[in-house]
Amino acid sequence: MIKDLNSKSIEELILINFNQDDYVYEFTQRQRNNNVALLQEVTNLSETAEKLKSEYEEIKTVINEYRLQYEEKEKELRELYNQKQLLDGQFTIEKLIEEMKKNIDENYQKPKQKLINEFLSKKIDFETFKENFKQLSIGFHYYSLIKDKMNLYK
């Protein structure tokens, strides 16, 4: 302000002296305009920051929902994998072949041997022996073929 007053002529200084309020108002108007513009900018930035904060919170909520869904699916996959491991441990080709051998032995081989013993001890006649032996032999060979095919997959 002092620089501005030093650069004025006597007539201008006299005019300023009688109109001090007008001079001060005009002299400070540019700074006030800058302050108003700065205030507007800060207000706009504040509104923008609030909008961005709101958007951030919404996105954060969506991400948390996705994270929870991901964790649930991951847990479900772990459980399914554990179940698969259990099933893989229970049902291997070797175990199925072993079960098939037991089944053949119990349901066909032992009854066939018993049938032969009964025939030899004359507890049953030849026709009964022949018919029962035929049924047992068909089952024995059928399941033996399946067991042999399973051996190919070892």
Description:
The protein is an all-alpha fold and 154 residues long. The chain has a domain at 92-154. Helix content is 91%, strand content 0%. It is built from 5 helices and no strands. The protein has helices spanning 2-6, 10-18, 20-90, 93-120, 126-152. The model has no long low-confidence stretch (mean pLDDT 88).
Quick summary:
This protein has 154 residues and is an all-alpha fold. The chain has helices spanning 2-6, 10-18, 20-90, 93-120, 126-152.
Q: What topology emerges from the helices and strands here?
A:
Elements: H1 2-6, H2 10-18, H3 20-90, H4 93-120, H5 126-152
Q: Name the helix and strand elements from N-terminus to C-terminus, one letter apiece.
A: HHHHH
Shape: rod-shaped
- End-to-end distance, in Å? 101 Å
- Uncertain stretches of 5 or more adjacent residues: none
Continuous helix count: 5
Estimate what percentage of residues fall within beta strands. under 5%
Whole-number mean pLDDT:
88
Descriptors:
5 helices, mainly alpha
